[in-house]
Amino acid sequence: MHARISQSGPIKAFALSGLLGCVLILVQPSHAQDAKFVADNLKYSHDFYSNVHLVAIATLPRSFAYDRYPSDGPERIRCDDGTFARQHGKAWLRSDDWAETGKPVNKETARKLDDWVKLVYAALNVAPATVKLTDTSEADGRTQKVFEAPAGIRNGLPIRLTFAKPLYDKSDDFLLHGFTASLRVEGDKVVPAGASNPVKLSFGYLISVQGGYELSERAWEDLQVPKAEDKNRPADLQPKDAEAYLKRGNERWRNGELAAAIIDFSRSIDLNPRQADAYYARGLAKNANGDRKGAISDYNQAIDLNPKNFDYYNDRGIAKRASGDIDGAIADYTRAIELNPKGADLAYYNRAVAKNTKGDQNGALDDYNHAIELNPKNANAYNNRGNIKKAKGDFDGAIADFTSAIGLNSNLTVAHKNRAETKRAKGDAAGAAEDLKHTGQPESEESQPRSDQTVADLVNRGIENGKKGDLDGALADFDRAIELNPKDDAAYYNRAQAKRLKKDAAGAIADYTRAIELGSKNPAAYNNRGNARAENNDPAGAIADYTHAIELKPDYARAYYNRAVAKEAKRDAAGAAADFKHAQELDPELVSKESVADSSSNRVAGNGGAAGTIVSLLDGKLEIDIPPDFSRDPEDPKNPKTPAKFSGPDSAWGEVLRGTHGLTPEKLEGYLKMRVAEYSKGFKWLPKDSHLEWLKKEIVTIDGRKWADWRYVPMLKGKKDYSHNPVYTRFLTTSYTGQLLEITFTSNLNTNPELKAEIDHIMDSVHLEE
């Protein structure tokens, strides 16, 4: 599983036309049925891969791996010469962070990379007129069909196409997974070649799921396996007409199969171009994935076919505002209001947000009035209106609105904060202090929720607040997200994570359970609920949850490992040993040989006593010795500035941060002073009568390179021994290729003194070459 961002990443069709010439094989037609199957499923594969994170592994005379994000996203090629990437419309860079930073390549390298990309897309554009089915098989949970077509020239290799789909999938749709032929690039085109130019490609994809992660194709398919009583779910049935495709598209979308849903909506449109709801559904799906331009185009078609539907205008307005077309958004919200003035509370609210963005406070105020009149239970509308009144100097009116918002939602922290600021402006210090009890210390303006934030915005910001240690701020964001959409399982899942870090095991269990009830198919929800149950002294319940997680994801090494620990607690030595062994087979880096032989080593090993793993980063230039009870988190392509993250026991964690801003060696000391000053101000989560004790804050030399070595631990007044204190944190910062490189490890809430020694071992093992 690979880390990510958000649950629905931006998705848009990759423009192939004009990029390269198709490989056109001209042979005598035969085997019409086979040719139709290949043509239909090549189109399906092309469309599907255009809407997901595409991964292709190529074996030519030179091998390489190609990744591409949809929606004009970045591309990456990894090969023996290094890692290269480019942003949409930009030049190739030698880069480890998806072309956020990097060095330009020479013309020869750029041409080679361009040619490789052309070969990848040539396979998806191949159009053989004559094909023959040569093999059909079922293995490893998939149905596979292999076809062959004659070579394009006399001495070339035959074209071999391998299609596959999960056994549970009853539709007619197969994805292209393998391609073999002999091809070469001639100018801007890919043409047939002799046998000395073999091309072998394997295709796959990653798909976005809740919590900012991406799942591999295999892991995603494992999650989609239907239960015994659900073998004929609508998403598996093969549609016969436009209405059926629309229905299956909606079902696939609800099931998280967004790329397939978009294809079904397109098929519905192909069969009935006069069906407005199909354009509207596809527009909603495209907008949900960041394809604003495609969404607006579909909304336009829906409106042309049914110009009286106010929802079409409202949602087109949302897409236009997200695209920066504020005037266009306001015009659409206005039309939605005209069409349905009595049911336009959302359109009034959205128009108010847009008007406020343009600085039209009076117009926004009037629209919030209408939105509240139509829906007096919208706490966010009161809060936003209060902000405008406060900005206009109407403090009494603002306080009244914030009070109404709090009355509707007592957990709306930002309303308490806004009311506190307004009371302070009126000179009511006591009233302000009372409100701040609900929020902790005043937050910065940057951390306030924007009035137009979505559920995804709030969940993502909550995750970031949690990473910074601001668990109260994270909980406030997740609470607000749940208020906006009580059926969003991602908000419950992440709130459970925050509650568990605050040692609220019961609250965490309740939220994990709610996320699961809402349909979460994330095996981590069961795994983490199992962790919370284990912490709540319920090993039997924990084992049941770990078992469910394994059923959802049979290669879930962490769940096997956790179940082993729980079985050990129940004195099931044989069961624990079996699970430790299975976990090691799946992920040798997670479980050391010592932990399999002696499960008692599932404890913190002081000074890295247990066998660890050397993690190599930055093309092998950076090496860190990671102990076995720390695991490397999945890579997050959406966060290229963090090459690696690690999770340790009881919420301990570490990360390697790269390239957030320029940093030269001579500026390192100034950077250290700045960061120490920032941290010395303290954090809202520090207990009373405590402070940050700086254990070290100086420039040191490691392997001839200057590093800023800074470390701290919270200390209670009058205490000198920090061995059992939480949040023991160490940083190593240096300048690498003119950019910041920072390594951080913290015990977080873990108070085990041996973990502090283990973190010291990790940091002492850091080795960086030029």
What does this structure look like?
The protein is an alpha+beta fold and 770 residues long. The protein is 44% helix and 20% strand. The protein is built from 26 helices and 24 strands. The strands form 3 sheets. Strands 1, 2, 3, 4, 5, 6, 7, 8, 9, 10, 11, 12, 13 and 14 form a 14-stranded antiparallel β-sheet that branches. A 7-stranded antiparallel β-sheet has the order 17-18-19-23-22-21-20. A hairpin with a 6-residue loop joins strand 5 and strand 6 (93-94). Helix 8 packs parallel to helix 10. The radius of gyration is 28 Å and the shape is globular. The model is unreliable at 1-30, 227-232, 441-452 and 592-611 (pLDDT under 50).
**Proportion of residues in β-strands:** 15-25%
Distance between termini? 31 Å
Indicate the radius of gyration in whole angstroms. 28 Å
How many strands?
24
Largest sheet: 14 strands, antiparallel
Features:
single chain; 770 residues; alpha+beta; 14-stranded antiparallel β-sheet; seven-stranded antiparallel β-sheet; 26 helices; 24 strands; 20% strand; disordered N terminus
Q: What's the arrangement of secondary structure elements?
A:
Blueprint: E1 2-3, H1 32-49, E2 53-59, E3 63-68, E4 75-79, E5 82-86, E6 93-94, E7 103-104, H2 107-125, E8 132-139, E9 142-149, E10 159-166, E11 175-186, E12 189-192, E13 198-209, E14 213-216, H3 217-224, H4 242-254, H5 258-271, H6 276-288, H7 292-305, H8 310-322, H9 326-339, H10 345-357, H11 361-374, H12 379-391, H13 395-408, H14 413-425, H15 429-436, H16 455-467, H17 471-484, H18 489-501, H19 505-517, H20 523-535, H21 539-552, H22 557-569, H23 573-586, H24 593-597, E15 613-617, E16 622-626, E17 631-632, E18 644-647, E19 653-662, H25 668-680, E20 690-702, E21 705-716, E22 729-736, E23 739-746, H26 753-764, E24 767-768
Antiparallel strand pairs: 1-14, 2-3, 2-13, 3-4, 4-5, 5-6, 6-7, 8-9, 9-10, 10-11, 11-12, 11-13, 13-14, 15-16, 16-24, 17-18, 18-19, 19-23, 20-21, 21-22, 22-23
